[in-house]
Amino acid sequence: MPDPIEKAKAEAARAPAPTPPASEVPQGGLDIAWAEGQPPLIAANGPETLSGHKVVLSLRPEKVSIWKERPTNQPNAVNILQGEVIDIAYLGNMSTYHVKLADGTMVKAQASNTRRIANRGITWEDKVWLSFTATAGVVLEDEA
Q: Please, are residues 118 and 138 in contact by the beta-carbon 8 Å criterion?
């Protein structure tokens, strides 16, 4: 019989990120609805003139952190998403993780290689968490 505490931890880790309260959207920022059933993304630098329009949030991979477990001690990481590692590109001192989100969106995250390859905690097909700050991306109008 599974340990009830471990079972509760596992269920909490699989739960979707809570929707941040509107007060977390900084002045001059936007909350971006991006997928049904997912909390909005918070962008600090979205022009208010784009509010209500279709937009794209452009993120550089080095601005996205990757975690084995849901980050709980990152107060500035207001955007937290869960996905699965599809591919990993080892680039000497850095690795780029290609992560597929629940809606099929692919996101890249980069991390420094501080350990030997055999000791890394994240590998293919792992369920992972991605996080980034409200200032990490650039909001662009979607012209599609």
A: no
> How far is Cα 126 from Cα 137, in angstroms, rounded to an integer?
25
Considering all CA atoms of the chain, what is the largest pairwise distance in Å, rounded to the nearest integer? 55
pTM of the model: 0.77
Buried b (16+ CB within 10 A) or exposed e, 83-122: bebeebeeeeeebbbbbebeeeeebbbbbeeeeeeeeeeb
For the chain, what's the residue count? Answer: 144
Instruction: Report the DSSP beta bridge partners of residue 28.
Output: none
pLDDT in tens, 26-46: 777 888 988 988 889 999 987
